[in-house]
């Protein structure tokens, strides 16, 4: 009986610990996207950061259209075409900058300057910093500001959060972000991510 209770308590402790883990959260976002879809807004932009189109949907899924992959037998080159399912309909996109934000994520572009000038004279140990930052990206996230620009460098959007982590995606030239539990997909954009402490 004591062993059974110990196993149950251990399982509960592990579940609670993992619930705060960013890597687990991003896995659940992917699971929800595949089986239910996410409530998201899809926006595409030209080189001057002017919006081309906007589509909002309650059941959105983003993936690489594997039809455009090419293979020589030994290796496969991923195609750049994105397939986006919105409800029962779909769209394909390639080329221009795209931001797909889960509903609730706010573009706070006006709150931050278009350019950033940072001076930091603090000394540290870079190899330790890298290890700590990688750990925080996977488990807790960090307070960060994400400045997004079009492909020619024109400021486009800004997002910030207390628990921000970044992830690779299956789509070439794209990055996924988990910002306070909500998903942001950035495709063919320039971006810079700052620790919030650098901007204060």
List keywords for this structure.
globular, alpha+beta, 4 helices, 200 residues, single chain, 25% helix
Q: What features would you describe in this structure?
A:
There is one protein chain. The chain is of the alpha+beta class and 200 residues long. The protein has one domain. It contains 4 helices and 12 strands; from the N terminus they run ααβββββββαβββββα. The strands form 2 sheets. It has a 10-stranded antiparallel β-sheet. It has a two-stranded antiparallel sheet with strand order 3-4. β9 and β10 (174-179) form a beta hairpin.
- As for the number of domains, it is 1
Order of helices and strands: HHEEEEEEEHEEEEEH
What's the main sheet like? 10 strands, antiparallel
Q: Tally the helices: what do you get? A: 4
Molecular shape:
globular
Which structural category fits the helices and strands?
Answer: alpha+beta
What strand line-up does the widest sheet have?
Answer: 6-5-2-1-7-11-10-9-8-12
Low-confidence runs: 12-19
Helix share, percent: 25-40%
What is the typical, i.e. mean, pLDDT?
76
Euclidean distance between termini CA atoms: 54 Å
- Beta-strand share of residues: 35-45%
Radius of gyration: 19 Å
Instruction: List how many beta strands DSSP finds.
Output: 12
């Amino acid at each position: 009986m004591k062993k059974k209770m110990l196993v149950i308590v251990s399982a509960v402790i592990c579940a609670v610990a993992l619930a705060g883990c960013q890597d687990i959260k991003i896995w659940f976002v992917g699971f929800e996207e595949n089986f239910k879809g996410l409530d998201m807004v899809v926006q595409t932009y030209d080189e001057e950061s002017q919006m081309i189109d906007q589509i909002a949907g309650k059941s959105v899924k983003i993936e690489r259209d594997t039809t455009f992959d090419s293979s020589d037998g030994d290796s496969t080159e991923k195609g750049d075409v994105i397939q986006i399912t919105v409800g029962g309909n779909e769209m394909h996109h390639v080329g221009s900058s795209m931001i797909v934000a889960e509903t609730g994520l706010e573009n706070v572009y006006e709150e931050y300057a278009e350019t950033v000038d940072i001076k930091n004279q603090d000394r540290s140990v870079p190899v330790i910093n890298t290890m700590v930052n990688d750990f925080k990206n996977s488990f807790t996230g960090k307070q960060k500001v994400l400045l997004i620009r079009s492909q020619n460098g024109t400021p486009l959007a800004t997002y910030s959060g207390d628990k921000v982590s970044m992830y690779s995606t299956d789509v070439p030239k794209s990055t996924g972000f988990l910002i306070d539990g909500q998903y942001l997909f950035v495709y063919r954009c320039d971006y810079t991510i700052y620790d919030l402490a650098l901007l204060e």
